[in-house]
Automatic annotation (TrEMBL):
Protein name listed in UniProt: Calcineurin-like phosphoesterase domain-containing protein
Organism whose genome encodes this protein: Sporothrix bragantina
Recorded superkingdom: Eukaryota
Domain Calcineurin-like phosphoesterase: 66-228
Record-linked InterPro entries: Calcineurin-like_PHP, Metallo-depent_PP-like
Pfam families: Metallophos
Region of interest: Disordered: 471-494
Entries under SUPFAM superfamilies matching the protein: Metallo-dependent phosphatases
């Protein structure tokens, strides 16, 4: 039985919690709690249902990239890296509750895998999405192709996941082996679209998508089970978006325009960035230089960054490592892709292009309309060029792991139609520590607006050192309490 004192304590507790929540929800300085409290989880849906804006009028994507699962499976620290990468995914998903997860390349470190189980790491990667009923879509990176790892087999493993429908990765150019595997698009429908029509027809027959998501395969890595006849080295794969994919992209856009009578705004994803990203980073024609830490906030440690067609010659021969190789830095084969993205961005088409690959770069820049960049023959049309955050404990670098978030609203889309401009897109990076950095609005004034600089923080695998020490002494690993390292206090308290 509750006493009068107990009742008063409960009442005061509820009032206090409400007051604290009100402060956080109105404070612009604590976006972490504000986001968690304001974004509700979706109701349970058919896993195969078409993508759709949330009931609050927004659509949010969490981008994980460069997870690099499968490194050194024969040493204890390799699987420990993967366990910590899973924890990063789970932490971000529980904080953000996105509508779609994008795995933007280098899911697996293919050169460390065995042929018999190289794709099995995919099960561990997607388990957090399956547990939460979240759909995901992938692009594959250069490390997802190697002597023992096949892109085709990796796609097959994705499509075998249950429940059927959560994996949205498909190959829309199956008859073109040179094109790669992850070339496709996904439509996103409005929150008011009835996904099941009264006559049982397809949603595409009675709803016009509000947004298109494009996925491109930048290839790279090495051919599956092939070696150079002379040197015995692995055979390199071309590392740019193939011309056949560009033709498909342009033709598909024409078909969508004819079907819907208008250009549909879109976001694009590719693992290896095109040359324009390199040009933006290295451009010194402006007083602020290429990347201004307050106007393009983000880490800029990978300078110069690695781009498409790097290490290839203009004649299509590889620049190093093969019997017929030459010394070439950049071949320019990504120019058709850049031209197609720029042409689509001329109006309300492609809003932004998101890449990974360069673990130490996390900024967004604008390929300004009409601007000429050094080494790029294509004029800009205002497309935003963005990097995400190194998400996995595999791969090089110790930057604090996390994932870029991208949110677009129906309100912004409607306003862009009236104003005849690109929709605004909000984006930020959620770190494994729970912190948010680099929160910006990709709008018409991006590049002029001033934001806080992004802290350049680092984390270290919290369980790998203990294991490594035990391996060196050939003793069974012991559980040890370590001194908390910066950025890991939250996890050590759990």
């Amino acid at each position: 039985m509750l006493t009068r004192r107990s009742v008063l304590a409960i009442v005061f507790g509820v009032v206090a919690l409400a007051a604290i929540s009100a402060v956080y929800l109105t404070s612009p300085t604590d976006f972490h709690l504000k986001t968690v409290l304001q974004r509700a989880s979706r109701a349970t849906r058919d896993p195969a249902a078409p993508l759709q804006f949330h009931s609050d009028g927004s659509f949010q994507i969490s981008i994980f990239e460069d997870l690099h699962f499968g490194e050194n499976a024969w040493k204890y620290w390799g699987p420990q890296q993967d366990l910590n990468s899973v924890r990063v995914i789970e932490t971000v998903l529980d904080a953000e509750r996105p509508d779609l997860v994008v795995l933007n390349g280098d899911l697996i470190t293919g050169e460390n895998t065995f042929r018999e189980n190289s794709t099995a790491y995919l099960d561990q990667i997607v388990a957090p999405m399956i547990q939460r009923g979240l759909p995901w879509a992938s692009t594959y990176g250069n490390h997802d192709s190697d002597f023992n790892l096949s892109r085709t087999a990796l796609l097959a493993r994705e499509q075998q996941q249950k429940p059927t429908g959560l994996a949205r990765t498909v190959n829309m150019l199956p008859g073109s082996p040179r094109a790669g595997v992850t070339n496709y698009y996904l439509p996103v429908y409005g929150s008011d679209c009835q996904l099941i029509s009264s006559n049982g027809g397809n949603v595409a027959d009675h709803c016009v998508p509000l947004l298109i998501l494009w996925f491109f395969d930048s290839r790279g890595g090495f051919e599956y089970q092939k070696k150079d006849a002379v040197t015995g080295a692995r055979v390199g794969k071309e590392n740019w978006v193939d011309a056949s994919v560009v033709s498909w992209f342009e033709k598909t856009q024409e078909n969508l325009l004819a079907k819907h009578g208008k250009a549909i705004p879109s976001l694009a994803f590719v693992h290896i960035p095109p040359n324009v990203a390199y040009a933006l980073q290295m451009d010194n024609t402006k007083p602020t230089g290429g990347i201004d830490s307050h106007r393009q906030p983000g880490i800029n440690d990978d300078k110069p960054l690695a781009r498409q067609a790097q290490g290839w010659c203009k004649d299509g021969t590889i620049g190093a490592g093969q019997s017929n190789s030459k010394n070439c830095a950049y071949g320019g084969q990504d120019e058709p892709f850049m031209r197609a993205i720029a042409a689509s961005g001329n109006g309300t088409g492609v809003i932004a292009l998101f890449s990974g690959h360069d673990h130490g770069d996390t900024w967004c820049h604008t390929w300004e309309a009409g601007r000429t960049l050094p080494g790029v023959v294509v004029l800009g049309t205002g497309v935003h060029i963005c990097f995400g955050q190194h998400s996995g404990y595999g791969g090089y670098g110790s930057w604090t792991r996390g994932a870029r978030q991208v949110r677009i609203t129906e309100e912004s889309l409607a306003a862009s139609v009236i104003a005849r401009r690109r929709p605004d897109v909000d984006t930020w990076i959620r770190l494994e520590t729970g912190d948010i950095v680099g929160r910006v609005s990709l709008n018409v004034t991006y590049g002029q607006d001033v934001y806080p600089a992004t802290p350049n923080t680092h984390t270290h695998c919290p369980t790998c050192d203990v294991v490594a020490e035990s391996e060196n002494t050939q003793q069974p690993p012991k559980l040890q309490v370590q001194e908390p390292k910066k950025g890991w206090k939250q996890y050590l308290k759990r």
